[in-house]
């Protein structure tokens, strides 16, 4: 499953350092696409072009303050993820809370970076997240899995499973989806892969693959979705360089 991707990544790595301005334009495009699609999946109504305008610091008429903040916050969370990668910081629970804190900053400061203290359901899903009193234990188990068992996996498989397990725990009141996609890309980027975009047009496929993973422990559909998007991003890089 990963042979073709590894070959493309090797070609990309052989061309490093990449052209400065080409890399800058790809990064800016991915930041926009990532922010737009991740927010759109969660119901944000800003279009791609409106998202671009908000990222440039301009207010869009007729749109809520929350929708504007979701764009600004997501960009800040991406910058934080890039900083983690640049500094080669080890993965930890503190990072997860910091990412979430940025996602919900000024939207819900009471619960930004704070585990939920209430029971929740995931709309449209069969899977039921654990009770609030179990979240701390489940998150510690996630970190332990990451530090041990997951290290034997291919990085793309590890990134996909990190997303699956995190969303299954659903540790926060709100913002779990955006945070999970940031964690997915954090793991890919730490291993030298470019970030991917889970596109809003694939939202149903994405949700169905996640629910299947949570209710049947069959992760292949979700991993294949991630593989598809990694291929798409690698093809973009290789085409432009």
TrEMBL record:
Protein species of origin: Tepidibacter hydrothermalis
SUPFAM superfamilies to which the protein is assigned, alphabetical: Fic-like
InterPro entries according to UniProt: Fido (IPR003812), Fido-like_dom_sf (IPR036597), Fido_containing (IPR040198)
Pfam family, one: Fic
Organism superkingdom: Bacteria
Protein name: Fic family protein
Domain Fido: 91-228
């Amino acid at each position: 499953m990963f042979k073709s991707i590894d070959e493309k990544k090797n070609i990309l790595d052989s061309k490093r350092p990449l052209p400065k301005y080409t890399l800058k334009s790809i990064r800016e495009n991915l930041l926009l696409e990532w922010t737009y699609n991740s927010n759109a999946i969660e119901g944000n109504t800003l279009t791609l072009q409106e998202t671009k305008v908000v990222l440039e610091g301009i207010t869009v008429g007729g749109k809520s303050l929350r929708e504007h903040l979701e764009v600004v916050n997501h960009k800040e969370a991406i910058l934080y993820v890039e900083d983690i990668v640049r500094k080669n910081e080890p993965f930890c629970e503190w990072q997860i809370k910091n990412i979430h804190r940025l996602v919900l900053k000024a939207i819900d400061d009471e619960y930004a970076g704070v585990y939920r203290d209430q029971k929740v359901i995931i709309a449209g899903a069969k899977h039921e997240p654990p009770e609030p009193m179990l979240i701390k234990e489940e998150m510690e188990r996630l970190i332990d899995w990451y530090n041990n068992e997951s290290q034997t996996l291919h990085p793309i498989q590890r990134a996909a499973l990190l997303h699956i397990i995190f969303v299954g725990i659903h540790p926060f009141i709100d913002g779990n989806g955006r945070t999970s996609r940031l964690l997915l890309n954090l793991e890919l980027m730490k291993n030298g892969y470019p970030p991917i975009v889970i596109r809003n047009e694939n939202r149903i496929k994405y949700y169905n693959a996640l629910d299947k993973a949570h209710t049947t422990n069959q992760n292949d559909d979700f991993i294949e979705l991630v593989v598809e998007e990694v291929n798409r991003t690698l093809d973009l890089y290789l085409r432009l360089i």
